[in-house]
Each structure stands twice: as structure tokens, then as C-alpha cells.
């Protein structure tokens, strides 16, 4: 097993029209030995390129990759001790599933009873035992994905790299495989870097979540931390569904004011000083998650008043889109509470649930506003 360290890693593609595409801009990150790190971020932000560089399948334009402190930047993929499952499945179409899995051991000893039993064990784990004699074109996308996973798992890699390995599976299988991957990692805590579009996967599987944007890492933190303490507005918006509300406001004279607010929100003198010192024009974004916004109870002062535009029934909650001063606020309410269109909602939230960001840099000011 190995730790993976990337130092100022960069990959620029030359385009045929003479231009260039900066796929990975400047990545500095360490994934500890045995850590399970997931990588999330919008399509095209450089996740696959990042993983392929660690795998040795893509040459960095500049920067270094270290496994256990040793520079492997110029070491070939075969000699890095990695195992990778690709976003696009790359099984051999003319070999049986069984031989495809066995091929995972190409550089090891691929004969003998022990290997046979490992093949069956892996096939069983991913639920394709009855497909071992078929060939990949005869399988569904999800079945192919599971065969590719078995092939990667059978090798005993130092570092396990997975690029959206569950994307073609249906919801039920996905959740089963997710649990199995987690169990597998608990049994054999291999250093794992796992790219996914699925937030549930990122939050449930990993020791740490890496949020990428535009070829850069915006934050690397444990799942609860990335949700509770986003370091910038991008991470706050990217993690959590429905998306966090971001309300434009100003912090002046000891209060936050916003067009949307019925009343100013008091802040501590200390926070006011920080904003005066660090925030351009004192302009901020007030971030409040939909599940932290509540309808006021009797006698309580509301912060926002608006009317119901639409709502979505999600099963365990209803998401209500409330319109106020041309802005939209997303509110999560209990499933049995069904609003009528144009209903008036008087809303409130507590100071502690506010994430405050600098409106121009989008960097966090505080993730827990304190009441003066
Ligand atoms: N071989 C290549 N030549 C030119 N540009 C490339 C090449 N590979 C990737 N890119 C570009 O680099 C950027 C990052 O691509 P990458 O595949 O790493 O994104 P991604 O985060 O994995 O996206 P997705 O979530 O859609 O898989 C994209 O803008 C892509 O078009
Ligand atoms: Mg990709």
C-alpha cells in the first residue's frame, strides 16, 4: 500500500486549432496510505485527467507524483502497482468474462487453482458468477462494469483508481455495490481514489471528499466537514441537494442587510471588523441550506417572506421554491406539508446555520455565525 502525493501537477492539452486546454491546472494534494478519497466536480473539470496521471496513463505537463515519498512521475503505468477501472469500460470483447477477470493478474501468476478460486470469489462479489462464460458484447452495460470491477479487484494493487465505476448500474445494484465496495475497503484498506458524479457515493464511501473545479482542487475534507464547513461558495453550492440558498447582502454597522430580508441580522463586533478589513465593499453571500430554513412559528419574527412558486415531492421531504424580491429560496419541509401555489411563506433560520462568504472572492468568512 502507498500514499499518493501530487505536487503542483498540471496537464495542458494542445488542441488541433493551435489553442490549448488546461485540463488540470495546479494540484497539490496528498492521499494517505489506506485512505479512500472520492473526487467530485462538474463535467470537464479534469477528474479523469487527474486520475490518469496518477495511473501513469497521461504524462503531466509539469509537476510530480510521489508514491510513498518516491517519485513515480517517470515510472510506467505497469510498474506503479496500480489498478484502474475506467469510465469507459475496456474489456476484451473476444475473451470470456472469466478470462477478462483473470487478465487482471497478467503480471502476476495467472494459473492454478488458487487463481481459479480468486476469479470465482471476485465474480461472486460483484454478482456475475453466472456470466463467467459469456463475452462482453453479450452483457449489459452494468454487467460489463461489474466485470471490469472484478478484473481490477483481483489484482492486489498498491493504489486503486476508479473512474465512475458504478455509473451504468441501476439504483438498486448501485447501492448494493456501494455497500460492497465499502465493506471491501474496510477489510482491505487500500489507498483508493474514486471519481464519481454521485454525491451519495462521495458522502457515504469516503474518508475524504475532493471537490474539483476548472482543473483545481477547491477543498479536500472528510464528508461531514465538506458539508458543514465549506471553504468557499463553490463547494457549498456543489455539495448538498437541493442546492444551498445564496443571498446577496452587505455587512455594515453591526448587521447583515439584504434586499430579501425583512429585517437586519445582527453580527458580532469581531465579525464586523473582519468584514471591514477583508471584504471588498462589505458585500457578502449569506448561504443557508434548504433544510435549515423553516416556516416561522406563531409570534416569531420572520426573516424572509415570499410566495410559493412550485414544489417537488421527494418522498421524505417536499422542496418548495419560494419567490421573494425576484429571488428564489429553496425550502425543505416535511412530506405531509403540501403547500398551495401562491401560499405565503414566512421563513426564518438561525444564526448558527448561516455560512457567510465574501461575495467577490467567494472564500468563506464563517460557517457558523454567532449572535452578538
Ligand atoms: N486528449 C485530450 N485532448 C484535448 N483535450 C482533452 C483531452 N482529454 C481531456 N481533455 C479536456 O480536458 C478537460 C478535462 O477533461 P476530463 O476528462 O479530465 O474531465 P472530467 O472531469 O473527467 O469530466 P467528466 O465528468 O465529463 O468525465 C475537458 O475540457 C476535456 O475536454
Ligand atoms: Mg471523466
Automatic annotation (TrEMBL):
EC number per UniProt: 7.5.2.13
Question: Main site of residence?
Answer: membrane
Chemical reaction(s) catalysed: D-xylose(out) + ATP + H2O = D-xylose(in) + ADP + phosphate + H(+); L-arabinose(out) + ATP + H2O = L-arabinose(in) + ADP + phosphate + H(+)
InterPro entries linked to this entry: AAA+_ATPase, ABC_transporter-like_ATP-bd, ABC_transporter-like_CS, ABC_transpr_MalK/UgpC-like, Mo/tungstate-bd_C_term_dom, NA-bd_OB-fold, P-loop_NTPase, Transp-assoc_OB_typ2
Q: A single Gene Ontology molecular function, please?
A: ATP binding
Q: Does the keyword Cell membrane apply?
A: yes
What membrane topology does the UniProt entry give?
A: Peripheral membrane protein
User: Where does it localize?
Assistant: Cell membrane
* Keywords tagged on the record: ATP-binding, Cell membrane, Membrane, Nucleotide-binding, Translocase, Transport
Q: Any keyword Membrane?
A: yes
Entry GO CC: ATP-binding cassette (ABC) transporter complex, substrate-binding subunit-containing
Top-rank taxon, per record: Archaea
Pfam families on file: ABC_tran, TOBE_2
Enzyme class of the recorded protein, top EC level: translocase
How does this chain assemble?
Answer: The complex is composed of two ATP-binding proteins (XacJ and XacK), two transmembrane proteins (XacH and XacI) and a solute-binding protein (XacG).
Q: What does this protein do?
A: Part of the ABC transporter complex XacGHIJK involved in the uptake of xylose and arabinose. Responsible for energy coupling to the transport system.
What is the name attached to this protein's record?
ABC-type D-xylose/L-arabinose transporter
Organism of origin: Natrarchaeobius chitinivorans
